Amino acid sequence: MPVLTTKQIMEIIPHRQPFLLIDTVEELEPGVRAAAKKCVSYNEPYFGGHFPGEPVMPGVLIIEALAQTGAVAILCPEENRGKTAYFAGINSAKFRQKVVPGDVLVLETEIIRQKGPLGVGKATARVDGKIVCTAELTFAIN
Known about the structure:
The protein has helices at 6-10, 59-75, and strands at residues 24-29, 33-39, 85-95, 104-115, 118-127, 130-141. The chain is an alpha+beta fold. It has a single domain (6-141), classed as Roll (Thiol Ester Dehydrase, Chain A).
């Protein structure tokens, strides 16, 4: 059973379809970490052009899904409710394998540093237990 449904996620972060890239939050430590899931389907709008005949989820959207996962964690505490977490940087992003329709992305982001409105999250995406992407994401809360 998820900790947060799609509807509850939308109460925390401002993203909406087609740009809401997490379906459920499975684990949550407000202000510390979150783990979410994204069920990747053939109906995703980007598959029409990325790539015809061989659909692959764009790496930047995997990074965005990881950022949305981290945004849920950082915006859950009462003092951050109603605010927005913006990208301030992406470091050390590595992609290890393709994400394709039918995959279930398990997204984990842990806040490893925060000073005032700025912070950094350590992010990992997995499919079937295998790492598909890692990155360090810098954010600014406004």
